[in-house]
Design a protein that fits this description.
With 138 residues, the protein is an alpha+beta fold. It has one domain: HIT-like (HIT family, subunit A). The chain is built from 4 helices and 5 strands. It has a 5-stranded antiparallel β-sheet. The longest helix has 12 residues. The protein is globular, with a radius of gyration of 17 Å. Bound molecules: guanosine-5'-monophosphate (5GP) and zinc ion. The site of guanosine-5'-monophosphate has 13 residues, from strand 2. GO terms for molecular function: hydrolase activity. It comes from Streptococcus acidominimus. Keywords: Hydrolase. InterPro entries: HINT, Histidine_triad_CS, Histidine_triad_HIT, HIT-like, HIT-like_sf.
């Protein structure tokens, strides 16, 4: 049994409500069901979070996300879907095996409130920050 709960789920050592599986990814229901159909999509190969994944590994994971989200939405009759991936504890990560949350949405009836505290745009500050952060390569 692995120390990592999602590695144990991938290995079939812990039961999960599997929705989809292939060579690279596993999708299963999150036990807490923040909204109906709340699912997790994980790479089968362990990594801590997206911050340590390379292009090849993350491509294999994200290649399947649209189709999984589309099918969740259709099968549940949902009106939308949120995608979330917490990276490190300060961002709310509690399980340190990369995972993407898919949260089906049901108009105003699902009790989930995600809101950004919007501030007035400061264009000189934005330009300065972009200068600091501009990337030659990724
Ligand atoms: P995080 O907070 O790291 O972004 O999300 C971890 C998620 O894993 C949580 O939403 C939690 O409900 C889910 N989770 C934790 N343990 C298990 C488990 O044993 N089985 C399933 N299906 N989900 C789990
Ligand atoms: Zn793991």
């Amino acid at each position: 049994m692995s120390d990592c709960i999602f590695c144990s789920i991938v290995a079939g050592e812990i039961p999960s409500s599997t929705l989809y599986e292939d060579e690279h990814v596993l999708a299963f229901l999150d036990i807490t069901q923040v909204t109906k159909g709340h699912s997790l999509v994980v790479p089968k190969k362990h990594s801590r979070n997206l911050l340590e994944m390379d292009e090849q590994a993350s491509s294999a994971l994200f290649a399947k996300i649209p189709a999984i989200a589309q099918q969740l939405k259709e099968k549940l009759g949902a009106s939308g879907v949120n995608l979330l991936s917490n990276m490190e504890a300060s961002a709310g990560q509690t399980v340190f095996h990369t995972h993407v949350h898919l949260l089906p949405r049901f108009d105003d009836q699902d009790g989930l409130h995600i809101s950004f505290d919007a501030k007035e745009p400061d264009f000189p500050a934005l330009a300065q920050l972009a200068d600091q952060l501009r990337m030659e390569t990724v």
